[in-house]
Write a sequence for this structure.
């Protein structure tokens, strides 16, 4: 989605313009971060990897799509391809329950 890509690039631009260099961003998110920021960084990475593993179990082409789109739209690529995988998954017919 072009809007997602533009938003991602804008946020990356804001981060780099605020900190000045990729090394400064790395220090702010990891080496010099307080415990809560470091925890959120780890949590985000684990969630992203977990969603990628789930996508890989469901569909290899979708997993490769996620890897190819990640540099363009960031972690939102995993959410986007996961939504496509779930949309393509056939649903079971609802079962009728008997009432007493």
């Amino acid at each position: 989605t072009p809007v997602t890509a533009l938003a991602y690039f804008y946020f990356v631009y804001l981060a780099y313009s605020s900190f000045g260099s990729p090394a400064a961003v790395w220090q702010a998110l990891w080496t010099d971060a307080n415990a809560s920021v470091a925890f959120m960084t780890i949590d985000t990475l684990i969630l992203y990897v977990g969603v990628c593993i789930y996508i890989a179990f469901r569909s290899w082409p979708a997993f490769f799509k996620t890897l190819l789109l990640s540099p363009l739209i960031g972690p939102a690529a995993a959410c986007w391809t996961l939504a496509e995988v779930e949309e393509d998954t056939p649903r079971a017919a609802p079962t009728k329950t008997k009432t007493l």
